[in-house]
Amino acid sequence: MSITIALSKGRIYEETLPLLAAAGITVAEDPEKSRKLIFPTNQPDVRVVLVRASDVPVYVQYGGADLGVSGLDSLIEHGGQGLYQPLDLQIAQCRVSVAVRADFDYEAAVQQGGRLKIATKYTTIAREFFAQKGVHVDMVKLYGSMELAPLTGMADAIVDLVSTGSTLKANNLVEVERIMDISSRLVVNQAALKLKQQRLRPIIDAFAGAIGKD
Ligand code: AMP
C-alpha cells in the first residue's frame, strides 16, 4: 500500500520539504535539477510526483496521488470535489489581486453597472468577485504572463497572484484591489483517507505538528 504525494515545483515544493521532513520523509533527488516526474523518498512506500500547481487537486481527486499540497487559488478554481482538506499549511502565502495600467481609471470602470474586460487564469475567483460588486465582466482566460494583457490593450485589468508586487511594478501595473489572501492547503483523496488511514494519518499529524496545530 504505497503513498503518492503530489506537489508543484517552486515555492510549494520548497516550503513543503520541512513538513515532509517532520513526517520523516526526505526526497532522494532535487527535482529542480531533474526532468523526472516521479521521485522516490527515503521511505520505500512513499513517492512524490511533480505536476502543475493547478493539476494537484485533479491528481488527488482522481487518485493519481493520495495527498497533495495545493494553493487555495488552484483549489477554488478546481472546486474541491472529492478532496478532504484537513490543514491550512500557511505556506506559499500571497494574495489574489486586481491590477491595471497606471493610466486606467479603475474607480470609474467599476461604478455600479460598469463593464470591465479581465484577463486571468483565475476565472472563478474573478467572476465571483466582480459579480458581488455588480460589475459586468468580459473574461479572457489566459494560462500565464497575465501582465501582458493590459499592456497590449487586450484587457482593462488582470486578476493574478501577487507576492512582493515586483512583477506588477516591472510591468508598470498597479494593484488596485486585493481579492483574497492565499496560502497552501493539504488535500487528501477521500477514498485513500479511509483505505490507507494507517499510513496517511501519521503524515497528516506530522504536518499538523510542524505548523503548530497538533
Ligand atoms: P511578485 O513579483 O513577488 O509579486 O510575484 C508575482 C508573480 O509570482 C506572479 O507571476 C505570480 O503568478 C507568482 N506568484 C506569487 N506568489 C505565488 C505563489 N504563492 N504561488 C505561485 N505563484 C506565485
UniProtKB/TrEMBL annotation:
GO terms for biological process: L-histidine biosynthetic process. Keywords: Amino-acid biosynthesis, ATP-binding, Cytoplasm, Glycosyltransferase, Histidine biosynthesis, Nucleotide-binding, Transferase. It is an enzyme of class 2 (transferase). It catalyses: 1-(5-phospho-beta-D-ribosyl)-ATP + diphosphate = 5-phospho-alpha-D-ribose 1-diphosphate + ATP. Its main location: cytoplasm. Gene3D superfamilies: Periplasmic binding protein-like II. The keyword Ribosomal protein does not apply. Residues 52-207 form the ATP phosphoribosyltransferase catalytic domain. One of its GO terms (cellular component) is cytoplasm. It comes from the Bacteria. It is found in: Cytoplasm. Belongs to the ATP phosphoribosyltransferase family. Short subfamily. Lacks the C-terminal regulatory region which is replaced by HisZ. Heteromultimer composed of HisG and HisZ subunits. This is ATP phosphoribosyltransferase. It comes from Comamonas denitrificans. The lineage of its organism: Bacteria, Pseudomonadati, Pseudomonadota, Betaproteobacteria, Burkholderiales. The gene is hisG.
